[in-house]
Amino acid sequence: MNARTKKVLVSSLLIITGFYVVLCILVYFLQEKLIFFPEKLAKDHEFRFSQPFQEMSFSMDDGKSLSGLLFKADSSKGLIFYLHGNAGSLDSWGEVARFYTDAGYDLLC
To answer: What is the pTM of this model?
Structure first.
């Protein structure tokens, strides 16, 4: 391998490494946008479900609040605390909650 070939190889490796480092930095700072796909509801959004429910709000130490819905069974065997994942919103949970409440469990989602 002559000196010119070594120089081209080293330059190519440095360029590839530079692009890789820049890509890693971009992915680090954009990771939430790449992973989470929440459906944001308006602050005045009104939930409408075919069964009774209670809206709940939990204040966090950092001043933010988390919202949840409590669907109660007629005769509760216990509570299921369900975290629905990284996409969607609570607006679609009315249909799913019926399964748990019919089985006799309260559902907090």
So the answer is: 0.63
